[in-house]
Amino acid sequence: MLSSPLRHIAASFKPRSVALASRNARTYATETKIPINIVEVGPRDGLQNEKGVIPVDVKVELIEKLALAGCNNIEAGSFVSPKWVPQMAGTGEIISRMHRLPDVHYAVLVPNQKGLDGLFSVLDTYNQSSHSESIPPPSDEISIFTAATDAFTRANLNTSIAESLVKLAPVARTAIDKGLRVRGYVSVAIACPYTGQVDYKKVREVSKELLEMGCYEVSLGDTVGRGTPTQVAEMLEEVKKDVPVEKLAGHFHDTFGTAVANVFTALEHGVRTIDSSVGGLGGCPYSPGATGNVATEDVLYALQGSKYSVTGTEYGKGSIDLDKITEIGWWISGKLGRESISRAGRALRAKKIRDAEMAKDGEVRAKL
Ligand SMILES: CC(C)(COP(=O)([O-])OP(=O)([O-])OC[C@H]1O[C@@H](n2cnc3c(N)ncnc32)[C@H](O)[C@@H]1OP(=O)([O-])[O-])[C@@H](O)C(=O)NCCC(=O)NCCSC(=O)C[C@@](C)(O)CC(=O)[O-]
Question: Are 182 and 209 within 8 A, CB to CB?
Answer without folding.
Answer: no
